[in-house]
Design a protein that fits this description.
The chain contains 17 helices and 19 strands. With about 475 residues, the protein is an alpha/beta fold. The strands form five sheets. The protein has an eight-stranded parallel β-sheet. It has a five-stranded antiparallel β-sheet with strand order 15-16-17-18-19.
């Protein structure tokens, strides 16, 4: 079944409660009519990166629960899960066999050794400098076998995340099996993590190489579409990539929205945001916050370099202890294209500004996702960052059941859930979207669907909001403030 046009929650399996049963309890107790879907971040056995280094897709990490718990959630909500299409764990049986047996391994063809990538393994420094990466270190690791022989293996992100060769029949046979198994459950959508890094070719950027990328995307879609499961390619880069994929009918992310909304609210100007809302894809998933940082590269040419620089500087000034050094090697984060902060902290922990941000997101074209820390209006977790020396943990606080109960009582959280309930259930959002003319210091967005209509007006100077909608019970317009 197609996923519903309602609010979705993004969470780790152990972030709203210690495990999947406690997550399910939280959903039932607090969010039963506020969300229609859940993006459940990786729950597979993994060796690193909080689940994003999958050892296998056949199991649920027993610390989280079981497939029964996954299926239970999938029966009640549209369930989105992750498939790390770019890589698999160094600890997987496939790479461990290759590490032991080299070219004699039945899985040898799954991986990208330098000998495979270039004649005589001759990958030059010039070749490596052309590769599009988000870390200063080169995209490979050197392995050493028991007999002392060494080999260079492509690994875009981390030494625990070994890139897959998608030109290999062996890779496709194994991954097809996994995809069919996943799609055959109670799954609505599969998110293709790091999709743009699947096309590796020496002498190029090795990023979203056409036409290879389209052949692979069609192949992946073919694996799951018989089960009526959608795919969602994750690509963090210039907004034109989202436009391209959308034009071919695929779901895409609106990764430009987070920075645009911050810029809009900081500088009390609607110009950049309104321009994007006119041209952005309609078949998209919108986010303000995710398990990663706020994207910067995604707004190139939607904001000027001066606007980007000024907004980033103010993020550091206003963002509740978000520090530049949380994006360096000391804090295990070298991604220079994202900014680590919770969205609530980025907006100075200002309740009215935060609600305006969510209204803009919920009225923008697409299906909105709310990250679990954002749901609870969480502040930057400096203690966790300093304890773990991982910059991204600033936005990855885990909430126990008792802590969730306290957070749900905060006025800002009550306001947000009321807004989520409205967005999740009001029929106008299945209709047509309009951006209405307004002064630069206002944003006015409207949805029409037959007799149902909803118009949001936001004052960017004082963060007042007003929503006017048709009430089907009274048959009159009703005005509310969130």
């Amino acid at each position: 079944m197609p996923i519903k046009n309602g609010v979705q929650l993004i969470t780790y399996p152990d972030s709203l409660g210690r495990n999947l049963p406690e997550l399910h309890y939280t959903l039932k107790k607090y969010l039963h009519d506020a969300i229609s879907g859940i993006h459940l971040l990786p729950f597979y056995p993994s060796s690193a990166d909080r689940g994003f280094s999958p050892i296998t897709y056949e199991k649920v990490d027993p610390h989280f629960g079981s497939w029964t718990d996954i299926d239970r959630i999938g029966r009640e909500y549209d369930l989105i899960i992750d498939f790390m299409v770019n890589h698999i764990s160094r600890q997987s049986i496939y790479f461990q066999d290759y590490l032991k047996n080299g070219s004699r391994s039945p899985y040898a063809d799954m991986f990208l050794s330098f000998d495979k990538l270039a004649p005589n393994g001759n990958v030059t420094q010039e070749d490596l400098e052309k590769v599009y990466t988000r870390k200063p270190s080169p995209p490979y690791m050197t392995i050493e076998r028991a007999d002392g022989t060494k080999e260079k293996i492509w690994s875009t992100f981390d030494n625990e995340q070994i890139d897959l060769d998608w030109q290999s029949p062996v890779t496709r046979k194994i991954m097809r099996k996994f995809l069919i198994q996943l799609a055959g459950g109670n799954i609505g959508m599969i998110r293709l993590d790091a999709f743009a890094y699947t096309t590796i070719k020496i002498g190029t950027r090795s990023f979203f190489l056409e036409p290879d990328v389209w052949e692979l995307l069609d192949w992946l879609d073919d694996c799951v579409s018989p089960f009526q499961v959608e795919i969602l390619p994750e690509v963090h880069e210039h907004y034109s990539y989202q436009i391209k994929m959308s034009e071919k009918g695929y779901w895409v992310y609106d990764f430009a929205l987070p920075m645009l909304v911050i810029h809009t609210l900081y500088h009390h100007s609607n110009k950049c945001l309104i321009n994007w809302l006119h041209i952005c894809p309609r078949k998209q998933i919108t986010t303000l916050d995710t398990h990663d940082g706020i994207g910067i590269v995604d707004v190139h040419e939607l904001m000027s370099q001066d606007e980007i620089h000024r907004t980033l500087q103010e993020l550091y000034d206003k963002g509740s202890n978000a520090k530049r050094h949380y994006n360096n090697a000391k804090y295990n984060n070298l991604d220079i294209y994202q900014m680590n902060t919770t969205y609530y902290s980025a907006l100075e922990c200002n309740d009215d500004s935060y609600i305006c941000a969510r209204i803009i997101q919920f009225f923008a074209p697409g299906i909105p996702q709310v990250y679990y820390v954002g749901l609870l209006a969480g502040k930057n977790d400096i203690e966790l960052v300093e304890k773990t020396k991982s910059g991204r943990n600033i936005n990855r606080h885990n909430y126990g059941v008792d802590e969730i109960d306290l957070e749900m009582k905060k006025p800002i959280v009550k306001r947000l859930i009321r807004l989520m309930q409205f967005r999740n259930n009001y029929p106008a959002f299945d209709g047509e979207f309009h951006v209405e003319d307004s002064p630069e210091n206002q944003v006015v967005l409207k949805w029409n669907n037959g007799v149902f209509h909803a118009k949001a007006r936001i004052d960017l100077d004082n963060y007042d909001n007003q929503v006017v909608y048709y009430d089907n019970e009274t048959h009159h317009n009703k005005t509310v403030t969130f």
